[in-house]
Amino acid sequence: MRRSHGRPALTGFVYALLAYASWGLLPLYWKPFGMVSPLEVVSHRVIWSLLLLVALLIFGQLEETRSVLRNGKRLSVLFVTASLLGVNWALFIYGVVSGQVVQTSLGYFLNPLVSIFLAFLFLRERLNLVQTLAVFLAACGVAHFGWYLGQLPWIALSLAFSFGLYGLLRKIVVITPLVGLLIETALMTPPALAIIWSLSSQDRVGFGTSAHLTLLFVGAGVVTTLPLLWFTSATKLLRLSTMAFLQYLAPTLQLLVGVIVFKEPFTSREAISFALIWTAIAIYLSSLVRSHRYPEPTADAD
């Protein structure tokens, strides 16, 4: 689709801001779950997302959905991507409710650079000297963060690599984002139902304990699906270079929420790590501008 100037571009910019701002502010939505098991939260996120996606797609893309369901190879890949997406969602919610939003934001800052590294490994996409330097600086930032944390920043690395692998595998499957997400959530639904049943048998469920918490559970489908709709709409109306710059709004907002709202520590030690990451991002983006080669946007997001 041709990306035009004027009103379509402005509309696309608004859609992009809505999507990235929503993803950046999601910690505010998950934090009230508090002591509720992250597995229960992500299970409800899967189930309510599936119901909403079915309602959205049932009138428009049924034929594509049937075609994918009849294709064993595409279903196999979507099974793996569904597993990666479920792990990513669960880790993100765990990071928020356990007071580690700064580390989750680090993971999403790293995600584009991890994607570059994975493309180099598996798709044989070459890295120029500037891009290699960016990846090296990002690795130094993670190493510094882990050194002073006293352990490997496994949440950040797991978030970055799980979503990086997710994006890599979704490149293999020729499928629209919403149909892909519909099938992925459908594949995740049986384990989600099993988790809820297990927690219920142990009397450990949060759903139904209060009206406020129950509404938050139900709304999990909306906060998962709507940003994706906005994101896919934006990619049709904006240049990919614009999307590449705007994507860093989400982890920036996550970092601000963690430090300002949740009062998580952000000392000079964390500042050095993030400075290395931000420098790596600036170097990488400047190389894109100079070479006029832009990355493809992420297929789906948190």
Describe this structure in words.
The C terminus is likely disordered. It is built from 12 helices and no strands. The protein has 302 residues and is mainly alpha-helical. 77% of the residues lie in helices and 0% in strands. Helix 1 runs parallel beside helix 11, helix 2 crosses helix 8 and helix 5 crosses helix 7. It starts with 6 loop residues before the first helix and ends in an 11-residue tail after the last helix.
Distance between the termini: 25 Å
Global structural class? mainly alpha
Silhouette: globular
Radius of gyration: 19 Å
Query: In percent, how much strand structure appears in the residues?
Result: under 5%
Order of helices and strands: HHHHHHHHHHHH
How is this fold's topology laid out?
Blueprint: H1 7-30, H2 38-57, H3 62-69, H4 72-97, H5 101-122, H6 129-149, H7 154-170, H8 177-201, H9 211-237, H10 240-246, H11 249-261, H12 268-291
Helix pairs in contact: 1-9, 1-11, 2-4, 2-8, 2-9, 4-7, 4-8, 5-6, 5-7, 5-11, 5-12, 6-12
Key terms for this structure?
single chain; 302 residues; mainly alpha; 12 helices; 0% strand
Summarize the structure.
The chain is mainly alpha-helical.
